[in-house]
Design a protein that fits this description.
Elements lengths: L1 H19 L4 H9 L4 E4 L5 E6 H10 L8 E4 L4 E6 L3 H5 L6 E3 L4 E4 L10 E4 L10 H7 L13
Antiparallel strand pairs: 1-6, 2-4, 2-5, 3-4, 3-7
Length: 153
């Protein structure tokens, strides 16, 4: 039972952070309560970098867990969305596999603890506000992949 409570607390922290990224957190929670995806517009705390699911899975294998921010996936649509800092668009402009959507683009999100309409969090928001560093993400999509400075000797 304590194990379930610990997971519930992690999911609640992620849900609270994600809902607070919206101009209307109450509407986000209302959508989730009816088991619907909640459209959360980018540009307040993060931007969205979109790519295919397979490239995302390869990139996730190249990035250490502590360097990953939230990643949402839709296997049926073969898409994934990385939450990146607001200044990431310029740094990711040359990464062909990624499309960074402009501020105001709505990402249709399930709550952090479960999937809806084929969407699920591969890396869940944990409430900390951590996002994927664009330099790390760009390197992970490059031919050599990202290696932490301590590993690059």
């Amino acid at each position: 039972m304590a194990h379930q409570m610990r997971f519930a607390a992690v999911y609640e922290a992620g849900d609270a952070w994600l809902a607070d990224c919206s101009a209307h957190p109450t509407l986000v929670r209302a959508a989730w309560n009816t088991e619907s995806l909640a459209p959360i517009k980018s540009g307040t705390r993060w931007l969205v970098a979109e790519t295919g699911l397979l490239p995302t899975m390869k990139a996730l294998n190249r990035i250490r867990e502590e360097h990953r921010g939230p990643v949402l996936a839709d296997p049926e649509a073969d898409k994934a969305w990385w939450l990146v800092p607001l200044e990431a668009a310029e740094e990711l402009a040359d990464v062909r596999q990624l499309v960074v959507h402009a501020a105001g683009w709505p990402l249709h999100c399930p709550p952090t603890g479960w999937h809806l309409e084929s969407r699920m969090w591969l890396c869940r928001p944990d409430g900390s506000g951590r996002l994927t560093d664009p330099a790390v993400l760009a390197a992970a999509f490059g031919p050599g992949g990202y290696r932490h400075a301590s590993e690059a000797s």
